[in-house]
Amino acid sequence: ALPGDEVTLAAVDKGASVAEVVEAVQRASGAGMATSVMVLAGLAGRERSLVHARRTAEAVNRMEPTHTAVLTYTPTPGSPLFDRFERGALELPGPLEVLEEIRELVRHLRCRTHFSCNHASNHLPLDGRLPSARADLLRSLDAGLAGRVRLRPEWLRSL
Question: Do the bridges between strand 126-130 and strand 113-117 make them parallel or antiparallel, or are there none, so unpaired?
Answer without folding.
Answer: antiparallel
